[in-house]
Design a protein that fits this description.
Distance between the termini: 64 Å
Shape: elongated
Structural class: alpha+beta
Number of strands: 16
Radius of gyration: 30 Å
Largest sheet: 9 strands, mixed
Strand order of the largest sheet: 2-6-7-10-1-11-12-13-14
Helix content: 25-40%
Oligomer: single chain
Number of domains: 3
Strand content: 15-25%
Length: 496
């Protein structure tokens, strides 16, 4: 029996404000900062403390909600979401549920099957939890400093709690169950990451857990309206894990139903090593959390004037930018999407194009190929490029004017990147100007053919691919500086 996947996503995005959601503690890097150094009585859940809403966190949330075309609710309410976990010091999380900040949004995706619109159910604010580190030391292992209390359990598993992340402003974006494939899920996650980066709300460093994705997956017989039993995969923080985890669950559900069994509603984790999910717990419903309004926080009121001011500050969004690249430069969907999602690279590309160097495809290839490789190897970036856009444009113009060839240009670009010199200066200093002298090239061709008579005979016997070998020999003799078009023409004449 053919089945149809039905998938919805919950995405948690840490907002890069200066302070936490309900207290003045700084937001620090949860990976590099010393544990439990950005903690106060409020985010540690001490009795008698009172939370205060972070205005900038609300403004960041408004940016995202407006970019997703959501309806902004003038009044939203914070609630207590009750559940016990070691890294939730209060025993509950302050979140929004029945009255969220924003609802009824949408985002358009470019998929292999065409454009797909995903509906956004709600966008709401909450606070993040702390972080647990699970340790399984070897028997007799020496404990870290400050862990003397665990000395009697040396060799047994234990967990360390870091509350630096507890209380960090978190934005949860919940979709309708509109996804029908793992590919659509991945494309949505990538588009959302590009969006929050463009808005300045989130860094997009998924390996640090600042964006965590939780798909809810079910399947149903094709044509059936009723949903199947859903399973949630918790806390995925890479596009690869997301796509593979969803694909795995779809196949697992199909196998369970084919065997005549029922899919259990549960929460699962993703094991990257095993490339499989594993059961964590039975899945909770909303009533299990015993939501009730947070008594220490008044309703959040967002006036229309504030919304309009935020809307006026929104930058060009990645989807609009990608469409502009397709329209104005003739780039493909994939090329345009890449530049739109990598805003710094896209801006650099536009600056090079602004110098009037011609082919957008050629500029795209150089920026995202040779130059990006150098940038990545150096660990730098396009925000402060080591090769100015105008300088790259000058280099590409030299290629277009046949002053140097592509091979030489790659060598010159490395020199420009490492030494900061201009292309023309490097070409003149090192004598790299392209050789187009027909007489000289004809002589080099004759020499190459004389050195490889067997290959010449092989070519004339019908093995035309040998011409590429002979071309390479001529270019070698010319030190890579010969004009390729002139060389090929001379070689064709000589081989007749």
């Amino acid at each position: 029996m053919p089945y149809e996947p039905v998938i919805g996503l919950e995405v948690h995005i840490e907002m890069q404000t200066q302070s936490k959601m309900f207290c003045a503690c700084p937001v620090v890097d949860s990976v590099s900062a010393p544990p439990n150094t950005a903690v106060c009585p409020v985010c540690a859940g001490h009795p008698g403390t009172l939370p205060v809403i972070n205005k900038m966190a609300v403004e960041y949330a408004l940016r995202v909600a407006l970019a997703l075309e959501c309806k902004i609710n003038e009044t939203s309410v914070f609630a207590r979401k009750n559940y016990f976990y070691p890294d939730i010091p209060k025993g509950y999380q302050i979140s929004q549920y029945e009255q969220p900040l924003a609802e009824y949004g949408r985002i358009s995706l470019q998929t292999s099957q065409g454009e797909k619109v995903i509906r956004i159910r709600r966008v709401h604010l909450e606070e993040d939890t702390g972080k647990l580190t699970h340790v399984e030391p070897e028997a007799g292992a020496t404990l870290l400093a400050g862990q003397e209390a665990l000395s009697t359990q040396t060799g047994r598993p234990y967990s360390l709690v870091d509350l630096n992340r507890a209380g960090v402003p978190l934005l949860e974006i919940v979709t309708e169950p509109d996804f029908r494939s793992a590919e659509e899920v991945r494309i949505y996650a990538m588009a959302l990451r590009a969006l929050v980066r463009a808005l300045g709300v989130n860094s997009g460093d998924m390996e640090k857990g600042v964006m965590r994705i939780e798909p809810n997956i079910s399947i149903r017989p094709l044509g059936q309206e009723e949903f199947g039993t859903k399973v949630e995969i918790k806390n995925l923080n890479s596009f690869r894990a997301l796509e593979r985890g969803v694909a795995y669950e779809i196949k697992r559900h199909e196998a369970v139903l084919a065997a005549g069994r029922a899919v259990a509603q549960e929460t699962v984790g993703w094991d990257e090593t095993a490339q499989a999910t594993y059961s964590q717990r039975s899945k909770e419903d909303a009533h299990d959390y015993r939501y009730f309004p947070e008594p220490d926080l008044p309703p959040l009121r967002v006036r229309a004037g504030w919304v309009e001011r935020v809307k006026a500050t929104l930058p060009e969004l990645p989807i609009a930018r990608a469409r502009r690249y397709q329209r104005d430069f003739g780039l493909s969907i994939a090329e345009s999407t890449f530049l739109a999602e990598e805003a710094a690279i896209g801006s650099y590309f536009e600056s090079v194009m602004g110098a009037g160097v011609g082919s957008a495809r050629s500029v795209f290839a150089w920026v995202t190929g040779e130059l990006l490789s150098l940038v990545n190897a150096a660990g730098s970036g396009f925000d402060s490029p080591q090769v100015h856009p105008q300088d790259l444009a000058d280099l590409l113009k030299m290629v277009a004017d046949s002053k140097i060839n592509q091979v030489t240009a790659k060598t010159v670009l490395v020199e420009m990147f490492e030494g900061g010199k201009k292309a023309a200066e490097i070409v003149e200093e090192k004598g790299l100007a392209q050789v187009s002298d027909g007489g000289l090239i004809a002589r080099l061709v004759a020499e190459a053919l004389a050195e490889f008579p067997a290959e010449v005979e092989s070519y004339r016997a019908g093995k035309v691919t040998v011409a590429n070998f002979l071309f390479g020999q001529v270019m070698r003799k010319a030190g890579g500086k010969a004009n390729p078009q002139v060389v090929r023409a001379a070689l064709e004449d000589a081989l007749r």
